[in-house]
Amino acid sequence: MTETRVGEELKKMESEYEPLLPVERKLIWYTFTTGVVLLAIFVLISRWFV
Amino acid sequence: MTTLPTTLNPSSVPSEGEALALTQSRVTEDWLAVWIGLFVFALSLSLVAGIDLLGWAINTSVWTLPAKALAPASKLYAHLPAALSLVATYFFLLAVLLVAAKGLRADLKRFAAGFTAIFIVSYACWFLGSWAYIAATPDKRAALKIAWSLNLTNESGYIIALLAGLIVGNFLPGVARAIQEAVRPELYIKTGIVILGGFLGIAALEQRQLATSVIFRGICAIIEAYLIYWPIVYFISRRYFGFSREWAVPLASGISICGVSAAIATGGAIRARPVVPIMVSSLVVIFAVIELMMLPFAAQHFLYNQPMVAGAWMGLAVKTDGAAVASGAITDALIRAKALAATGVVYQAGWITGVSATVKVFIDVFIGVWAFILAWIWSAKIERRSGDKVKVVEIWQRFPKFILGYVATFLIVLGIGVAVPSLIPKVKASMGQANLFRSMFFLMTFFAIGVLSNFRKLWQEGIAKLAAVYVLCLFGYIIWVGLLISWLFFHGVLPPVLKG
User: For chain B, how far is it from start to end, CA to CA, in angstroms?
Assistant: First the structure.
């Protein structure tokens, strides 16, 4: 892929947007929520037990 | 795609064939880093058996008179002229790396010529960085008979090497091309990290409780990095910048996890064309340099009273193994100097670098797992294709093998120390010798990263939109969340205090 074609491809994406699928939304939401919950748990463990 | 690229040159976007070739050579380089690191480690350990095999290596002290700066590492070789010690160090590294170059099927003549140039420039930078007016900390000024110094420690040589590399990469393209066969920052840093494992093993032996605490907190911090960084960056890339899934996955992984390795591994997991993660990786390398130039100094200014937070922050915020550990090394030097100047406290060297390396290593460990999860979601839910089966063995295929070397050297030193405590002083001396080579590999990494960072060319390649996502997510989210997570897990944890 040449330099120009990469640039063109990136521009093209604006007009040919792939909407977020429900499974992508789930992936984003579940991952982030799990991260926040685990963050709280790990912080407590690291402060109290380690 | 099973593995990661050997080298990356953002000055030219590779074709798909070239990109594929790059991705196929990484296993070799990963394993080579393990073997070279273990070889140096084993030679240094011979000191424990009373045989000094590496004592001839060059050691550079902070100097006011150049003639007194260089000397062999060991007293046994004190009779050797310093110049001979330096030449021996060069030939040793050249010989070892030529074997590696042969394994990588590199052009050996070009590699030897390139390596020679890299060694000379890198060592010159180290030598310059060891000049007392640049390197001396306040407690050393009286002994060196100087009234002032920049207080940067001799590790300022890393920054000078990076600047030298940037000059070559951006203003001397002919030189950059001439030495490119030997410009292999990933090989150098991974070898350095394998050797670093032994050095950190000594630190862990001396401070077992603290080491255990650091490792636990490091694991916690990186799990958070995956789960909190990645989904937000992916969402921003898809929703607000309109990137396709093929571009958004490597981009989110490159920005939020571990730069080049993650972009390539997750790109492969969702079957992105090789050029996509390679383009993202080019951007990662450039921004890692920018972070490397900024974050250690910010950490020195704001976090000198929380050194471990600063170390973890480098591991979480700076992308690419080389730049992250390099940032940790600079932060280590800068913060120890600032803490001494501001509060009179002398922290033991190496702990801040150790935290950065630990966090980075754990991040690397999980790349394969994350790539596997994405591969499963993409093949089972998003792009269902008949015959697509995700195999557990792919985790192993994507596993960065140099980590095995790091863990091995760490455990060997720890094992010897626990089994025979009377050997700890000898092991410590042997790791001191190995550490000289670790410094050389780090130095060459800094120079090589600089050479690979051609800012102007990358901009011309039309990836301003990728850069926009990168800037927004890195400087608007990753850096601050990384700081918060580092603070939550490492606040109040301090390195051993030697004085003060």
Answer: 53
